Amino acid sequence: MPRPARVNPSRQKNPTFTRPQKPKGDHRARQPAHEYALEALPGLEEVAAEELRGVPLARDLRGLRFWYPGDPERLTRLRGAVAAYRVRAWDVPRPRGLLGHQQLGELTAFLGEVVRWGGHRSFRLAAAGRESAVMIRLAEELSRGLDLPFDPEEGELLVRLRPQEGGPGWEVLARITPRPLSARAWRVCNRGGGLNATIAYALHRLAGVREEDRVFNPMAGSGTLLVERALLGPSAAMVGVDIDPGAVACARANLQAAGREVEVAEVDALATGLPPRSFDLIVCDLPWGDAIGSHRANAALYPAFLTEMHRLLSRHGRLAVVTHEIRLFEGLLRDQDRWHVRELFQVYSGGHHPKGYLLSKR
Predict the structure, then answer these.
(1) Which residue(s) pair with 355 in the sheet?
(2) CATH number at residue 147
(3) CATH assignment of the domain containing 339
(4) Tens digits of per-residue pLDDT, 280-304?
(5) What is the DSSP letter of 357?
(6) Residue 243 DSSP class
(7) Does residue 181 fall inside a structural domain?
(8) Angle value at C-alpha 270, between 268 and 272, nearest 5 degrees
(9) Chain CA centroid to CA 273, Å
(10) Which of 102, 121, 319, 333 lies at 20 to 30 Å from 170 by C-alpha?
(11) Is residue 253 part of a domain?
């Protein structure tokens, strides 16, 4: 009888044993998800929604509402929205129901999670009838439960109460950051009439972000358009000018705080001495005639601006402009044959309704 072949035990395969496999994919996707909602400036909702669609792990998107797992730090880097809120709903017919023992405990725990993550030092309520007896008592109970002072005007934790979207109850939205997302960390210097950073972001996104662009920002002010473009990625060149030395210093300070190197010069935007077709993208927040300039001065400034920018723009370049002098600007463009014009947006911000435009040479 032949002797059986000798088997090396170390090589013998155990059919019942398999090497454990590491789970594939982002580990955050396996963490519990929470519901969130973004707030956008009226008129820029689609800009915020488009940015949200590019956030990894955001799911079940319904406009500006979505679910997101784990640490919400990624959401604080959104630039097309003005605020991000954690959302939870309660099956109560009116806000008074939130004062019930179980509901109040759940609400306090919900807000406590937001506070522990965001580091808020005070809170406020935003709801219809916020000065009612129910809201006053709710503020008192939350102040005790959260160990936070109630500041009805400047509270860092903004808590919104409203009827549940698509449901019978009430929902609570808690802003996850102490300040709005539009209050950029890089803004160490501000000036009257400065452009909202969210509007600047939207203008760049809708005008197009291209690495090969030579970018020019006339009348740069505090540098909002320069910083927001620099944070979007590289460009072939970028320069800003302003005739006001205080504005130049302010723009340089904000760029330094943002960690970006961009040339800003004290030069009259209408007399730069630069050769024709120097830039592929020109972006400008023109004076609106209230905080900066006057309506009478703008009547002379705007046509001169359009003439000089036409000279400085490359053959296939773009001129992106935001202004509240809508009647003046559109009147100048109505009866001319040098520009193609497209309206990008009209937004509500700070009591104004400025429009954004994209111009190209005919």
Answers:
(1) 323, 346
(2) 3.30.2130.30
(3) 3.40.50.150
(4) 999 999 997 555 567 888 999 999 9
(5) E
(6) S
(7) no
(8) 65
(9) 35
(10) 121
(11) yes
d(CA 105, CA 248): 52
Q: Are residues 82 and 228 in the same domain?
A: no
Per-residue pLDDT tens over the stretch 32-73: 899 999 999 999 999 999 999 999 999 999 999 999 998 999
3-state class of 9 per DSSP?
Answer: coil
**Strand (E) positions, 129-169?**
157-163
Specify whether 203 is located in the same domain as 337: yes
Q: What is the Cα–Cα distance from 24 to 227, expressed in whole angstroms?
A: 37
Which domain, by its residues, includes 357?
Answer: 197-361
Distance CA 345, CA 203 (A): 9
Domain count across the chain: 2
Residues 121 and 242 in one domain: no
Q: Could you please report the per-residue DSSP string of 217-246?
A: ESS-TTSHHHHHHHHH---SEEEEEES-HH
Dihedral Cα 204, 206, 208, 213, nearest 10 deg: -40
| Paired tokens of 360 | 């190209």
**20 domain residue, yes or no:** no
Could you tell me if residue 8 is inside a domain? no
The closest of 271, 285, 293, 269 to 321, measured between CA atoms, is 285
Residue tagged 């970028």 (tokens): 238
Q: What is the dihedral of CA 183, 189, 191, 193, to 10 degrees?
A: -30
User: Cβ–Cβ contacts within 10 Å for residue 353, how many?
Assistant: 13
